[in-house]
C-alpha cells in the first residue's frame, strides 16, 4: 500500500500513543482535525486531507465517538522509525 510521507508521520505518532482529535459540524460532518502526540504536542502538516486518506485506507479508527487512534491495519502498515524500534 502506498502511504505518503505525511500519512507515515501521522501513523508513527499514533503508533507511539498519539490521537486525532476531531470536531463535527451539527453532529455529522467532521470539520477540523488535530493530531496530538503522547506528550501533548501538535503534529504540523496534518490536515483534513491526510485524515481522510488515512480513514479511507482504514489505517485509523474511532470507537463510540472517542478520538481516532491507529487501527491494527495501520500498525502493520507503519514503517519502523529509529525511536520506536526495540533496543
UniProtKB/TrEMBL annotation:
Domain of life: Bacteria
Record-linked InterPro entries: YjhX_toxin
Pfam families in the record: YjhX_toxin
Family in the record: Belongs to the UPF0386 family.
Protein name: UPF0386 protein BMG00_02465
Organism whose genome encodes this protein: Thioclava marina
